[in-house]
Structure formats: structure tokens, C-alpha cells
Amino acid sequence: MPAGEAGPFPRAVLDALGAAADRPVFEHGDRAVTGAELLDLVARVAAGLRAAGLGPGDGVGLLLGVDPEAFAVVLAAHVVGARVVGVRPGLPEVQVRHLLGLDVAAVVTDSGARYGPRALDVGALCATRPEPGPLRLAGRPDDVARLIHTSGSTGTPKACAQTYAAMAAGWAARPSAWPPAIRELAPRLARHLVFGSLSSQVMFEYAVLAVAAGGTAVVPDSPALPDAVVRHRATSSVITVPRLAKLVAAQRRDPADLSSLRALMVSGSPLAPDRHREALEVLGPVVFHGYGQTETGMISMATPTDPPGSVGTPPPAVTVEVRDGRGAPVPAGVDGELFVRTPSQARGYWGDPVESAEVFTGGWVRTRDLGRLDAAGRLHLTGRIRDVVIVNANLHHAGPIERVLAEHPDVAEAYVVAVPDEDTGEAVHAFVVPTAGRVPDPAALRALVTERLGAACAPARVTAIAEPPLAPSGKPDKRLLPR
Q: What percent of the chain stands above pLDDT 70?
């Protein structure tokens, strides 16, 4: 294999497990599984999948928890060249059936649940006798390796089709491909908490990164923070913005011993600058703020030394263009829509050529996020293209209004939605999470927005909430706020 090439997926992950040998790479309760033991599980499951007649191009659905066997099943399905369709916990039944209806030949489950004509039991697969010799990787570069569904926070979840070639180009298992921010992060993942679902792109890739960096993926008995960090002496975890806010508030109120913690990867939604500063102040230099999409993978990541409010500098392998409404690039410091190219981006949405043509265009992914690059090349997010309020036929983006509201000292988080209005067509309704010990004054908030953005952007209504409603992905779901 020529220098610099990744080899077929999941070769790099299997090599990382082989290099780990007798070192524990997965910890689940009282059980520690070594790299060699996990490789054996992968070989057994792969043999079981092949015995069931599954191979290149076949869809394999996964209804699994988080444990070493689930990790082995994901890798084994890729070893045989299948198209993996993972299902996150907490999705409505209609969405589960939709995802498992995407040309799925068999469903692997650890719960006994049956969807479709063929259900394969994890225990039985793990008991299969492995084939002699080294693992045979059957994934073909142009075949779809996995369908990853989007969070659904901006509409119905869509299945992003990522090829084996795109997965092989990923950075997680290949130290030589780690971007600068990941090189800083990787040594901090000695005991990395994994929870939720390994069908999550973020959870799977950080678990792989932890193993490749010489660490252990630790499954907590409960993912609640700070308890999970304390109980498992964890060094790192992925965290959403709402969970980060709760952790910071808990540490201010009744500090737990987080001396083992070295990294929190904030994911899923933008982190307001003031909230970012507060997290660094209370938790220390452990906050990494990542930005990516299911369609693209990681786009950029801010390290603890980057200025709060940015999502860091895109690495050399990632290209970001900020474009105006006519599609022309704009200079540094000017807001526009973000178009991105990454080595591991999806090639489209499975079974949806119309939406694919809108988002995947000319080798670029249209993120439909608004942002800007500053003079130092750092990326700042400023809103969503479709997240708008139309007042007197004039379009106003919600992101800038939310940022101004969050700058007020009485407001910890702000979420803006459009509501019908008899006079203006639509008006701004702001939902705000108060800063601890403060009570926001709606009149003061309206005055602040009016001064900064104009009267049309001022919220007609302001509602204080304890926390935002969440989608199954853990992201704030603004669609639920008006209810």
C-alpha cells in the first residue's frame, strides 16, 4: 500500500485493536475487554454474518446498546462489506421502521425485537467459530458503507450515504491524519465515556479515536454528569450544550471532584461565547467545541486556547467557503452560507435524489449554516439559512437575534422561533434560559435587540424556560418550544 493511503475500511481500526493487544480497550461494568479479545469478537461476528449470507452491498440494520459486542458488530458488518444502518435509542417507532425499511436484508439486535423478515441475535453471532486466517475485508470503495440519519432538528431525519472510500479517508483511527485540534485532544482520551448509541457518528468516531490514542472506551452505568466522571475516573466525554450548562451550574452549586477530567467535546449546536467562557472558567481548560454535520463529518474544532465563540480553524484537509446569496465567495469577516468539502463526506441522501441535488452540489456540501471566517482563519457560526422569521415580508435570521439576547447578563441561553402575528405576518417569540439567580426583563431584552438589530427583530413575546426541549439526539429542538 503506498505511503499515506489509509487502506480499505475498517483496516485502520482493526490495526489499532491489534496494536492494543492485551491492553483493555473497552470497559463495561466489571468487564474489561482487550484489543485482542475485541478482534476475536469481530472475527466471530463477521463469520456469523457471512454464514447468514450477508456480504457486499447488503443492508444490515443495528438495534443495539453500547457494549463491546455492539462495537464488534459494527466493525464486523463493515468487514463483510455490508451497508450498515444504525438506529439511535429514543426514536419514534415510525422513524425506526422507516430506517429499517431502507433496503435492509437483516437486523442485528440484542433485545429480541423483530423488524422485517430476518433478525440475528448478537449472542449467537459472537458464538460463531471464526474463519481461519486474517480477516477478509470485502468492502468495495464505491459501495455505501453506512447510512447515518441526521438528527431531525431541522426536519425529518435523512439517511446520509457514506461510502467505504469516504470512511477509509476518515481521521479517527489514523494518527498520521489527525488534524491539529485532534492531536491536542487525543492524549486526553485515556478513559473516554461512551453512551447512547454506537450508531451515532460522533460516539463511534470518538470511541475509535480513544482506542487509537491508547485509551479505553468506558461505558458508564449512567451517563449523568458529573457522577459518571467521578465514578469511572473518566478523562473525557462528549457533551451537548444543554448538558454542559447543567454541569457548569452543578459545579457552581456543589462542586464534584472532576480532577480526572481533561476533555469535554461540545457537540450538536453552537455554544454562545459567554456560555463558553463560563465553562472554561468553572471547568478549566477542558472544553473542545466541535462543528460538523452528519453529511460532512468534522469540519472544525476549537481547542481550550481558541477564543470563545469560534469553532476553531478548519484543518488543511477540509475546505470551507463562505458564500453570499448569489453563490459568490465573500471575504473574511463577512457572514454568508457555509459550503464545505471534506475527505469523508457523504455522497448524498439514500433514496432522495431531489434533496441530494440541493445539498450535494459540484463536490461541495451546502451546510445551510450561516457563518464567517475571521482574519485568523477561525470559523464562527451565526445561524441557519432556514431558521428565519418573516416580519412584514422581510426575512430575519433567528441566529443573530439569539446571539444578541444571549449577550445580556440575565440570559444564559436564547432560542428564537417565528409565531403568527395579525399585524406583521410573523413575529419573534424568544424563549430564554435565565442566568442563575437572575430574572430577565422582557422590556430590556426588546430594547437591546432593537438597538442592535432593529425593531422588527425585537421579540414580541419573551418566555423564560428552565431548559430547552431536546430531540432524541440530545440537541435542542426549537420546534417543540411553541407547544
A: 96
